[in-house]
Design brief:
Length: about 190
């Protein structure tokens, strides 16, 4: 996983928690005003989602949603396919991993698109100044439920990989991905 795509971990919560700090006057060095942290984001089609996040959601990419699985020794189907030769996957394993990847994508893409629609609706509501406490609660609840379903979808396929790979392949996957051995992951280093 690369950090270029960022994490889609409740972008609304991140924006809300940063709000008071962003509202304060920022200074750069030598008493000069610094560029506000959100300058330029107001022109995004969906304010809470970057172009990369929009692309990732439309394509069904994980965006770091499965990190608890990935970093604790549960390989992901996309990366297993990328490492198929180094892991010594059998033809049957390759076919099953491909099927899991396709199923994951088929599940994640509609959820990603739904999340985009929900975030865009919230954005439009604020732009039109029509958001009320009731509509805000409904919109953020729907967004949270979609995010949860999308994250569960990605995590579910990491779980499924454990039935498909041998313990040695799982160990090798961790090494190839740069995570070290299972013992090192358990110790946090």
């Amino acid at each position: 996983m690369t950090l270029r795509s960022g994490l889609l971990v409740l972008p609304l919560a991140a924006a809300l928690s940063a709000g008071p700090a962003a509202a304060q006057h920022h200074h750069g060095g030598h008493g000069q005003p610094a560029t506000p942290p959100y300058a330029g984001l107001q022109v995004r089609p969906v304010k809470s989602l970057s172009d990369q996040q929009l692309s990732d959601l439309r394509a069904g990419r994980g965006m770091g949603m499965a990190l608890p699985a990935e970093l604790n020794g549960y390989p992901g189907p996309v990366h297993v396919l990328e490492l198929a030769d180094a892991l010594g996957l059998t033809p049957e394993q390759r076919d099953r991993v491909r099927a899991l990847r396709e199923a994951m994508t088929a599940e994640a893409v509609p959820l990603g698109k739904r999340l985009i629609v929900e975030e865009a609706a919230l954005d439009r509501g604020f732009a039109a100044r029509t958001v009320t406490p009731t509509s805000l609660e409904a919109a953020t609840s729907a967004i949270g439920q979609t995010q949860a379903r999308l994250r569960a979808a990605h995590l579910r396929y990491h779980l499924a990989m454990m039935d498909l790979l041998t313990p040695e392949q799982v160990r090798r996957y961790g090494e190839l991905r740069g995570y070290g051995s299972a013992a090192e992951r358990q110790q946090g280093g």
